[in-house]
Amino acid sequence: MSPKQSHQLITGVSFGATSGIITAIGMIIGLNSATSSKLAVAAGIIVMAIANGFADAAGLHVSEESEVEWEKVKHTQKEIWFTTFFTFLSVCGSSLTFAVPILIFPLKMAVIISVGWGILLLIILNCYIASIRKENPAHLISEHIFLALFVIFVSYWAGILVARFIK
Fold first, then answer.
1. Which residues contact 107 (CB under 8 A, 6 or more apart)?
2. How many angstroms separate the Cα of 85 from the Cα of each of 59, 60, 70?
3. Which of 22, 42, 28, 31 is closest to 111 using CA atoms?
4. Taking burial as the number of CB atoms within 10 A of a residue's CB, which of 1, 65, 80, 88 is the most buried?
5. What is the 8-class DSSP label of residue 76?
6. Is 40 exposed, middle or buried (0-12, 13-18, 19+ CB in 10 A)?
7. Could you tell me the residue range of the domain that residue 117 belongs to?
8. Cα–Cα distance measured from residue 91 to residue 121, given in angstroms and rounded to the nearest whole number
9. 75: which DSSP letter?
């Protein structure tokens, strides 16, 4: 694998996994607080994994196409499609792992397990990114855990508000 392909792989996987993890946690918390329905949460995760996977892959595809350096395109079409493919796989794959606890455990326990799983995945991903950057992982980890907690808070209250106004 060339250094450019390695960069494109890391870009797609790190972006995709982070997006998939944080979006899945938000969906789980929001749908649970709105509906308390195992079916709604499971369906939400699966639909979101596919739709958000394609949306993020398309968004990163366009972003990579728009990168220009010294009036020359920065990435070849092969590199762009490489990133697009791994972004989709990472978003979809990381998101779908959250369906497992929802399908196996009672919903309340599954929500707690899912949040713990998401935090663990973010820690592992950010430790890896910090090692690539040769940095202390504490800053990256705390930054992304804070973001995940913010998404949990907002998603919970959004679900509560939706449930109140739709009933």
1. 32, 36, 37, 38, 41
2. 12, 10, 27
3. 28
4. 88
5. -
6. middle
7. 3-166
8. 13
9. S
DSSP state of 67: -
CA angle 52, 56, 57 (to 5 degrees): 115
Q: Report d(CA 53, CA 50) in Å as an integer.
A: 5
Number of domains in the chain: 1
Residue 129 DSSP SS3: helix
CA 166/CA 151 separation, integer angstroms = 22
Distance of CA 7 to the CA centre of its chain: 19
Q: For residue 96, which of 132, 47, 147, 54 has the smallest C-alpha distance?
A: 47
State mean pLDDT over 38-58: 96
Contact by Cβ (8 Å): 80, 64: yes
Give pLDDT tens digits for 18-36: 999 999 999 999 999 999 9
CA distance readout (Å), 38 to 52, 112, 138: 20, 14, 35
What tokens were used for 46?
A: 């699966």
Strands 68-69 and 72-73: antiparallel
Average pLDDT score over residue span 37-49:
97
Q: How far apart are CA 84 and CA 8, in angstroms?
A: 9
